């Protein structure tokens, strides 16, 4: 089990004067402050940064069905403040060591009037944000609770540029809208990212979502700068059905002074519980390919027939390619019976392969090649039917040595009828899947998931999720605009890893979908594999499109689990440059939106010795719309004192591997030549 290296709980205060009705908690660096006060007996919190108001007094409370609302008036009966300072080691991630430092207050409130119920509030203040949660303890007169509203407010002191998607209770797969907070007219999903007029970078989200409904946010009718929590409902209108004691997820407000501060924050992870899995040796990050993209562009079918993708022969070809190209896994979709019944009741079975998919032969062949098979459980949204198969489905994986599964819930609604992807019933369903997979030592990559809230710290085999508009939208819609992937790191990916599935080399697939395409340059497809973090990273194209393609060398060389991550450049919706280190090698990815731009990065930010830079950058004349394929590939010497100067084409990017210098590399040109070579050479 992962263990804290250093943990200090410093008791500061555990009392209250009789007259006290307010409390202040500071961040460890004393730059962020949260205040709790009782205004006419109703708890309100406010947040300030650098002595400037960020969130004005905002109320807290609950409305119930069957009981009176828990909104006060209250009196503050007791509080405790402690310092939490720990380092912990993730099983996998963007760095090998995570530091968590905060001051936490537990505040006990009691109603003044009968029935004098108790409500506890927890506040944690980090150097990069604040979080709070509710606790309703066990108490006489309360047993079952039916919550119809969580009355949490976020009243901002000033307007802010905001990036948001509408709160569709069944999907996060939307294009982001940028507007002022005052111009948000729809309920929105979290993470919700903002830049205030004072220049603070803010992300609203939640952490440790368990036995509760997902939180969306709706604008208040009477105040354009106030957001109200809106929990995803049950079919009968209740939001949460529970028993006491009850604890809510953390409501999180990540705060930075620059865009990279949001990317560096690990507050969401730090608010989750430590790893519960003792033996983590089976939990392995990997690169993978799969019988997948061909299904979306129409070359192959999920259903058995003349164009069936998941055949024994085809799967072996993918296994051979993976083994020859430093790829650890092969995903196969459409392997199991009853895809032809998609949309009907009880369609998918997960222990019965199609006749042309020999599971025994394939798994034996993969094991001989040191490649793992990634299973696929598409439920079609029939969650109860999947529940009934969970034990058998994961036991089947264990039997055939399948250590990873991609699951899916591709349907606009969920069964039971009236449930949604993000309500409490599905939150608990997803957790049952996670716990069952752990029992059989199977890692998970969940599509159409509940949003990530950091539970990968507690259950590290829950490795990646979709939960956003990914690559497949380029196969059967107008596609994702170039700016989309420059927004995702500052929105969806703040919640956790995303299985975006980059790496498409054939950006026009006219033979299959002449009206569709991928809206990037080739170099950007490589860069996305570094920029968009996932411990399961897919090279998503058909394997024939990688044959004899020099750019694929970057995919072969790419590492996937990181010791260190450095965010070099960041501007929401414009550009991002990220460098990640594994051992003695660095991988750098940078992308831009529809605009071309010049990038200038001092290599002293990441290098501490001379290295070789193997560069994959947009070539002469490259741009996403009319000429996406030119790519300049070359190796250069790079010193600590060099500055990387390079042009990113419109919709373009760059990918660089920095490796140790060997004697044969001494004749290579300096990286200072890269910009000129990029302009002049083919």
Output the keywords.
2 domains; Beta-galactosidase, Chain A, domain 5; 682 residues; TIM Barrel; alpha+beta; disordered N terminus; 11-stranded antiparallel β-sheet; 12 helices; single chain
Fold and architecture overview:
- There is one protein chain.
- The chain is an alpha+beta fold.
- The chain has twelve helices and 36 strands.
- Helix 4 (312-324) packs parallel to helix 5 (359-368) and helix 6 runs parallel beside helix 7.
- The termini are far apart.
- Residues 1-18 have low confidence and may be disordered.
Task: Give a brief description.
By secondary structure, this protein is α+β, with helices and mostly antiparallel strands.
CATH class (first level) name of the largest domain = Alpha Beta
CATH topology grouping of the largest domain:
TIM Barrel
Quick check: average pLDDT? 95
Count up the helices.
12
Give the biggest beta sheet.
11 strands, antiparallel
CATH superfamily of the largest domain: Aldolase class I
Topology of helices and strands:
Elements: E1 4-13, E2 22-26, E3 32-39, E4 42-49, E5 52-59, E6 62-64, E7 74-88, E8 98-111, E9 118-126, E10 129-136, E11 144-150, E12 153-156, E13 160-164, E14 177-180, E15 192-196, E16 201-207, E17 215-219, E18 226-231, E19 240-243, E20 246-247, E21 250-256, H1 259-264, H2 267-270, E22 286-291, H3 293-297, H4 312-324, E23 329-332, H5 359-368, E24 372-378, H6 383-399, E25 404-408, H7 424-439, E26 443-446, E27 462-465, H8 473-476, H9 484-487, H10 522-531, E28 536-538, H11 552-557, E29 564-571, E30 575-582, E31 585-592, E32 597-602, E33 611-618, E34 631-638, E35 643-648, E36 653-660, H12 674-680
Parallel strand pairs: 22-23, 22-28, 23-24, 24-25, 25-26, 26-27
Antiparallel strand pairs: 1-7, 2-3, 3-4, 4-5, 5-12, 6-11, 7-8, 8-9, 9-10, 10-20, 10-21, 11-19, 12-18, 13-14, 13-15, 15-16, 16-21, 17-18, 29-30, 30-31, 31-36, 32-35, 33-34, 33-36
């Amino acid at each position: 089990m992962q263990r804290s290296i250093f943990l200090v709980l410093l008791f500061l205060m555990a009392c209250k004067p009789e007259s006290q009705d307010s409390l202040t908690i500071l961040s460890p660096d004393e730059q962020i402050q949260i205040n709790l006060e009782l205004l006419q007996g109703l708890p309100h919190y406010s947040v300030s940064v650098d002595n400037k108001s960020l969130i004005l007094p905002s109320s807290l409370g609950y409305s119930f069905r069957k009981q009176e609302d828990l909104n006060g008036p209250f009196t503050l009966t007791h509080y405790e403040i402690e310092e939490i300072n720990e380092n912990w080691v993730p099983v996998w991630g963007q760095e090998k060591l995570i530091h968590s430092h905060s001051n936490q207050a537990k505040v006990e409130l009691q109603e003044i009037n009968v029935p004098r119920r108790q409500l506890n509030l927890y506040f944690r203040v980090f150097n990069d944000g604040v979080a709070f949660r509710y606790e309703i303890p066990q108490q006489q007169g309360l047993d079952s609770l039916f919550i119809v509203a969580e009355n949490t407010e976020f009243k901002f002191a000033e307007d802010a540029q905001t990036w948001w998607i509408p709160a569709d209770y069944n999907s996060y797969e939307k294009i982001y809208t940028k507007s002022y907070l005052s111009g948000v007219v729809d309920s929105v999903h979290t993470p919700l990212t903002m830049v205030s007029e004072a220049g603070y970078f803010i992300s609203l989200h939640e952490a440790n979502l368990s036995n509760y409904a997902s939180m969306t946010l709706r604008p208040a009718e009477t105040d354009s700068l106030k957001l109200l929590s809106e929990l995803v409902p049950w079919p009968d209108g209740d939001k949460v059905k529970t028993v006491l004691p009850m604890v809510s997820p953390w409501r999180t407000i990540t705060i930075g002074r620059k865009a990279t501060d949001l990317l560096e924050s690990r507050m969401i992870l730090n608010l989750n519980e430590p790893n519960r899995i003792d033996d983590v040796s089976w939990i392995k990050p990997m690169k993978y390919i799969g019988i997948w993209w061909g299904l979306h562009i129409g070359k192959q079918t999920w259903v058995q027939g003349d164009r069936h993708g998941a055949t024994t022969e085809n799967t072996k070809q993918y296994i051979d390619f993976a083994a020859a190209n430093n790829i650890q896994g092969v995903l196969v979709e459409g392997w199991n019976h009853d895809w032809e019944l998609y949309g009907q009741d009880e369609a998918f079975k997960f222990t019965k392969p199609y006749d042309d998919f020999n599971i025994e032969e394939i798994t034996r062949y993969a094991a001989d090649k040191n490649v793992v098979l990634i299973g696929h459980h598409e439920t079609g949204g029939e969650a109860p039917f999947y529940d009934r198969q969970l034990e058998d489905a994961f036991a089947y994986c264990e039997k055939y040595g399948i250590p990873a599964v991609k699951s899916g819930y591709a349907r606009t609604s969920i069964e039971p009828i009236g449930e949604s992807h993000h309500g409490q019933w599905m939150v608990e369903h997803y957790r049952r899947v996670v716990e069952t997979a752990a029992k059989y030592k199977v890692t998970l990559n969940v599509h159409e998931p509940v949003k990530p809230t950091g539970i990968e710290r507690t259950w590290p085999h829950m490795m990646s999720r979709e939960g956003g508009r990914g690559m497949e939208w380029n196969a059967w819609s107008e596609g994702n605009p170039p700016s989309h992937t420059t927004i995702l790191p500052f929105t969806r990916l703040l919640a956790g890893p995303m299985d975006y599935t980059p790496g498409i080399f054939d950006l026009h697939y006219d033979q299959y979908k002449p009206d569709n395409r991928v809206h990037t340059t080739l170099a950007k497809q490589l860069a996305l594999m570094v920029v968009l973090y996932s411990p399961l990273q897919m090279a998503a194209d058909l394997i024939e499109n990688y044959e004899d393609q020099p750019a694929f060398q970057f995919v072969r060389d790419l590492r996937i689990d990181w010791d260190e991550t450095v965010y070099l450049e960041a501007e929401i919706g414009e550009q991002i440059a990220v460098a990640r280190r594994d051992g003695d090698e660095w991988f750098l990815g940078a992308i831009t939106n529809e605009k071309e731009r010049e990038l200038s990065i001092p290599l002293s930010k990441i290098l501490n010795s001379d290295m070789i830079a193997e560069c994959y950058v947009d070539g002469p004349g490259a741009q996403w719309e009319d000429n996406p394929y030119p790519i300049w590939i070359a190796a250069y010497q790079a010193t600590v004192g060099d500055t990387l100067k390079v042009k990113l084409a419109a919709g373009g990017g760059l990918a660089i591997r920095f490796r140790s210098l060997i004697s044969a590399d001494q004749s290579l040109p300096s990286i200072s030549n890269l910009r000129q070579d990029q302009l002049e050479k083919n």
